[in-house]
Structures are given as C-alpha cells and as structure tokens.
Amino acid sequence: MGEPVLKKGVTLVLGGARSGKSMFAERLVAGTDLEPVYVATAQIFDEEMRERIAHHRARRGAEWRLVEEHDALEGVLAREAMAGRAVLVDCLTLWVSNLMLAEADIRVRSFALLDALGACKAPVVLVSNEVGLGIVPDNQMARDFRDYAGRLNQEIAAHADTVYFLAAGLPLTLKG
Fold this sequence. Notes:
CATH superfamily: P-loop containing nucleotide triphosphate hydrolases
Helix content: 40-55%
Radius of gyration: 15 Å
Low-confidence stretches: none
Largest sheet: 7 strands, mixed
Distance between the termini: 16 Å
CATH topology: Rossmann fold
Strand content: 15-25%
Shape: globular
C-alpha cells in the first residue's frame, strides 16, 4: 500500500509525543502540487523548544511558507487557506496551552476554529496530541488541559473529512 494522499477538506492527524505525526502531516502536504503553508503555534519558552523548532524548520525546507501564530488561528485560516495552497497547523495542543496561559475562553475559541475550518478554500491538516491515553493527571491544570484538548480533538474529528492516528510512525486511518 502506498503513501496516504491529502484529500480536500480537513484532515486531523493525532498521535502521542514522538509518534511521527508532524512528519506524517508534512509528507501529506508536501505530496501535493499546492503551495505548502506551515502554521506554527509553538512559543519559545526555553532552549529545548528552540531546538525542536529549528529541527522542524530544517526538516521542512525553504519551500514552505511559515506563519507563526500562537493565538488567532481563526484569522490565519481565513487569510491563508485559499485556493492553490495546502495549510498545515502544528499543533492544536500547543494552541490550547497558549489559550490556557492567556486565560481565554477555550470553548468559544474552539467553536470559532470550527467555523473558520468550514470556510477554508484549501485543504487543512491539523496536528494534535492524543492526550487521553495515559493516567489521570494529579493536578487541576493538567486535568483541564487534557479535557480541553480531548474535547477539541473530538470536535475536530467529528467535522474532519479524514482522521489519522499515528503510533511508532505508522498511520492508522480512523476516518475517511
């Protein structure tokens, strides 16, 4: 069986840490003849994150258009997800963390993101961590994060045309 092909609409790529989800999502977008747009939600708070970002940039190469947005994904999608492009958002769980730090209303923002996805004129690939497979976190903030991210993943998956789950670098098609 060959490499999965990016389809129209919304694709969600889920997986745990170091599952290969970002690299898989990048291959989906790079395998098209569309202009690749990478929307990065990460903020640099320490040297480890700086190194991770540098690694991702080097792996993607210069042909990708980079948009760094830690908060307003809805607006970025309205501007960037136009015909002739394919947009990759990496990642939703960092976006949720950013919203939590900003004390934003995550439910309202999640619905706004879903609305924005519905208006996109380009295929959009969203990367997110599956955070519900481990133990119940021992503190309220971590439990809130798990709950917000888990609900967002469910909402995106319900609206997505295609959903993949990555484990050990191997994609499993959950939807589409």
